[in-house]
Amino acid sequence: QSGWTGVNERTFIAVKPDGVQRKLVGEIVRRFEKRGFKLVALKLVKASEELLSEHYWELRNKPFYSTLISYMSSGPVVAMVWQGLDVVETARKMLGETNPADSLPGTIRGDFCVQVGKNVIHGSDSVESAQKEICLWFRQSELHRWESSSTNWIY
Ligand code: RTP
Ligand code: MG
Q1: Which positions bind ATP (predicted)?
Q2: pTM for the full model?
Q3: d(Cα 135, Cα 127) in Å, to the nearest integer?
Q4: CB-based pocket (< 6 A), ligand 1
């Protein structure tokens, strides 16, 4: 899907299995809503190893790869698509650094976790990755098109 730039930019966010088990879903959704982003899709998914191997294709040769796949398939994740101005970059700032130990308080990882192997949340690292990840995790029919609906009560 092309054309999702500017205010219509989209990113893929997933609350990882530890975040779901620790009941951080509401808090994370709240932060994205309050920041002013629009929710485009949301579902609870038990990711297959096949899906995860595509999602983490670029990390396939890393020493932590198999640990990462076990972690991500240890329970359901909450997969989401959020839309808004520069949402890819802003979401990464809201998440904090990959290693929670390097994440500032006020960021999601900086507030809720301490270990890189259990870092609560995923966010796409570029507009291109976001497009790939959205196509991998969602069908087109699962994505809400805000542009073509009446949103009179949303500023
Ligand atoms: P994410 O994709 O989950 O948003 O995280 P990221 O871009 O900040 O980091 P990335 O390099 O894409 O790594 C993906 C996930 O792999 C786990 N990881 N473990 N043991 C380690 O050194 C290590 N490094 C990365 C983390 O769960 C990381 O989020
Ligand atoms: Mg990444």
Answers
A1: 16, 64, 92, 98, 109, 119
A2: 0.94
A3: 13
A4: 59, 64, 68, 98, 116-117, 119, 122-123, 125
Q: DSSP code of 103?
A: P
Length of the chain: 155
Q: Is ipTM beyond 0.85?
A: yes
The answer to whether 64 is a known ligand-binding residue is yes
- Section 118-127 average pLDDT: 98
The CA 138 to ligand 1 mean position distance, Å, reads 21
Provide the terminal-to-terminal Cα distance of the chain, rounded to the nearest Å.
26
d(CA 130, CA 10): 7
How many Å apart are CA 54 and CA 74, to the nearest integer?
17
What distances in angstroms separate CA 154 from CA 38, 83, 86, 147, 149, one per listed residue? 10, 14, 19, 12, 11
Dihedral angle at the C-alpha atoms of 83, 86, 89, 94, nearest 10 degrees?
Answer: -60
Residue 43 contacts residue 78 (beta carbons within 8 Å): yes
Task: Give the residue whose CA is nearest to atom 10 of ligand 1.
Answer: 98
Amino acid at 84: G
